[in-house]
Write a sequence for this structure.
């Protein structure tokens, strides 16, 4: 219901951000991610694709590995799932999971818990892809792993 006003606000913020910052700014990428998610939720898959591809290019401008790309890859995975493209969604979710596993292994304390929470969300996304495809045997262990991470992280 509130997607249209949210999209207008995001478009305004994007225009302002694009005038104010370099093309490789992480804030710009985050706004593009948000606009892509809103467009995807609304069913505007072409617009979502454009926003998310711009976000990916923005993040790639300064990335030395996949870690900075993970938020956009996660949004692209969800978009692929909504588009009925489960193989692509699964591939993207697995890429995000690999990135978060490396980040979680490398970080301790709050940074490690944040990486774990992001990993749990990616596990749930991948589980949803399997669930939607009728592969409950694949979805269940992923959901259990996500739950275990959340219980450990959140207490």
């Amino acid at each position: 219901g509130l997607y249209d006003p949210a999209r207008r606000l995001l478009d305004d913020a994007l225009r302002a951000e694009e005038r104010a910052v370099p093309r490789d700014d992480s804030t710009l990428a985050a706004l593009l991610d948000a606009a892509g998610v809103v467009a995807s939720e609304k069913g505007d898959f072409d617009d979502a694709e454009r926003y998310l591809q711009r976000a990916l290019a923005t993040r790639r401008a300064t990335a030395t590995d996949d870690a900075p790309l993970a938020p956009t890859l996660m949004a692209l995975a969800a978009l692929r799932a909504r588009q009925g493209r489960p193989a692509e969604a699964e591939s993207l979710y697995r890429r995000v999971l690999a990135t978060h596993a490396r980040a979680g292994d490398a970080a301790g304390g709050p940074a490690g818990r944040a990486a774990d929470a992001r990993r749990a969300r990616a596990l749930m996304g991948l589980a949803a892809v399997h669930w939607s495809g009728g592969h409950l045997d694949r979805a269940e262990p992923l959901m259990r792993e996500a739950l275990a991470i959340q219980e450990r992280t959140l207490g």
The chain has a mean pLDDT of 86.
